Each structure stands twice: as structure tokens, then as C-alpha cells.
Amino acid sequence: MKRSSNRLVLLVGLFLAVVAFVLIAIMFQNNAGGGSGGPSAAPTTANVVVAAKDIALGSKITADAVQTKSVPVGDKPADSYGDPSQVIGQTVRQNVTSGQLVTSVVLTGGTSIQDISVPAGYVGISVLVDQVTGVGTLIKAGDYVDVVTGFNIFPEVSYDKATPAPTARAAGSPKPTPTPNPSAQPSSANVTINAVDGAGYNPNSVKTVVEGLQVLGTLLRQPTGDAAASGAPGTTLVDGQKQIVILAATVQQAEAIRYAQVDSGGSIALLLRSSADCQTPDGKASSCPIIPTSGITLRMMVDSWGVLPPQVVQVLEPTPYPSPMPSRLYPSPSPNPSDAAAPSGSTNP
Question: What is residue 53's predicted lDDT score, i.e. its pLDDT?
Fold first, then answer.
């Protein structure tokens, strides 16, 4: 009987040992986060991408230029990046210093300028463009642009000293006869009009005056709520939006740009350069190649580009009064008295 009690105690102890082993195993599994019954612990830190070295405005981010840094979750900005692959290959829109956080503003330039840095030996000059003259107002800091100006200048008119002002040509008087010299055509009242491009004059002239200027910053007027709401997703509204583009230029280049701004017949447009043309193979910002241009006039459009010149249409002027009229009308304005009846009280010659 005593032997049977010992066996029972042994079996009960073995059973309890197995149960205890199972319970301990379950507890370890839950603590390791593998259990499905309990929530896992929330992370307390996060990775952010920072610059591993200084990156100049307009340069491309390379793999060796960025690294990750661990920060508390609560200190991670919403516009930061957690993986370097998200920023490698992008162009920076501001100067970045070593250790600086790489955010979306660094890559897009943002919508406002807090500060700009003018390179040594250059000056900053701003130009005002719209959606047509400013590449859709999509130009950003760090881009490179060319400045094109166009002029519409009327011919120079000079008066003879003996004639203080032009006089109107009398009705029926013959038109002035053009002189054989195509560069000057006198009209009545001794007025000389200096012609250009041969016998005809077209005042339009277009020329790229400055090339490869780096954009230091932009100021963009935000579209109104009504304009933004009226456009369908993925569409661009042509709503007259304007943009101020601040350029880094030499003093001589700034003079040429300013002349085009103040001249009454001048206008400015910006051409957006490819960033690949203005970067070294390793992605660093570099000067853009200068491409000589000849400028464009109407004469060159016709001769070099095959544009058809406008046709001259000659319209006869109305015959000055008195003019021949049907004889059945009375009194007749005909200069021949025999073509009309004489008025009462008159005597035929």
C-alpha cells in the first residue's frame, strides 16, 4: 500500500513539473513578442537622414553625402526621411551643412525665402516672370537658367530743321516717291524714316543675353482658393500666376538684365537648363556651358528658318472730292458741266 502511494506522489509531481515547464515556455514566448495574445512594445526611436558632409546648392545627393541618425520618435519631423535611398539622386535647393537634417524643404525649396547666400564675386538680381515667360513658374532654387530678351523698337524719325512738325498731305496730292536708297525713305514734310533689313522694317529682335545663371531663390504667389478649387486633379491652371526669381550674376550681366527690364520696348523670359549640363559627373554644381547664339530678326527667320515673309497688299485710297458720279443724280458733282443739268437761274457757258 505504501509503494502505491509513492508512485502516485511521483506521477503527480511529474505532471506538475510538465505543467510548470509549459507555463514558463509560454511566458518567455510572450515576452519575446511572438505571442498573438499580447501587444508588442512600441518603438521609442526612429531613423532620420542627415548630411554626412557639406552639400552645395544645386548639387546632386550622392550615397556618401548622407547617413542616418537615431532620434526619439517624438523629435522626428514629419517632412524628414528615414532611408537614404529616398533622397539619393535628388538635387538640393539650398546649401546643406554637415549634420543638417535632410527634409522635403531641402529638396523642393519650399514656398518662401528666409535667407539667400550670394556667391563671392556675384550679385543677386531678381526678375519677374509669369507662367509663359517663367517655364510655368516651376523654376526652383538651385536651377540654372538663360535670360532671353526681346525688343520691339519703332524706327527712328528725324525732322528737317526747317520743318518743325510734319504737315498733312492734301487730298488728291501725289504720294511721295520712295528714294532708291532702301535705308531711308523720305515722306512729305521732310521726314526721314530709317528703315532696317532692306526696304522693309520689322521692329522685333530677340537674343539670349546671359547664360547659365544659378537661381538663388524664388518667391511664388500662391493661387487663390477659387482658382485652385476649379482645376481638376493633375491639371495646371493658367491663372496669371507670377514668380520672382532671384539670380546670381556678375555686375556686367546684371546691367544687361536691368537694361531689358527698364527699356519700354524690352521683355524678359527665362529658359530652364538641364541640371545634368550644369553638374560634374559626381553630382557637384558646376558652371553651365556657354552656347553662342546669333539672335533672331524677321530677316533671319525668312533667310535661315524658311518662314514665309508677309505679303504686301496695296489698297487704293478713295478718290478725293469732287469725283465722277452718275449723271442722273442732281446736282452732279461731275467736273464736266455737260454731264449734268444746270441749276435754275444758271446759264450754260
Answer: 92
pLDDT tens, residue by residue, 52-69: 999 999 999 999 999 999
Geometric angle at alpha carbon 77, from 46 and 223, rounded to 5°: 145
Give, for 34, the enclosing helix (H) or strand (E).
Answer: none
Distance between CA atoms of 208 and 293, rounded to whole angstroms? 7
Q: Which residue has the higher pLDDT, 349 or 208?
A: 208
Q: What is the 3-state secondary structure (H, E, C) of 136-184?
A: HHCCCCCCEEEEEEEEECCCCEEECCCCCCCCCCCCCCCCCCCCCCCCE
| pTM score | 0.62
CATH number of the structural domain 45-108: 3.90.1210.10
What are the residues whose beta carbons fall under 8 Å from the beta carbon of 314, sequence distance 6 or more?
none
Q: Tell me the C-alpha to C-alpha distance, in Å, between residue 335 and each of 157, 321, 340.
A: 40, 10, 9
The domain segmentation of the chain, as residue ranges, is 45-108, 111-159+181-225+237-307
Distance of CA 54 to the CA centre of its chain: 28
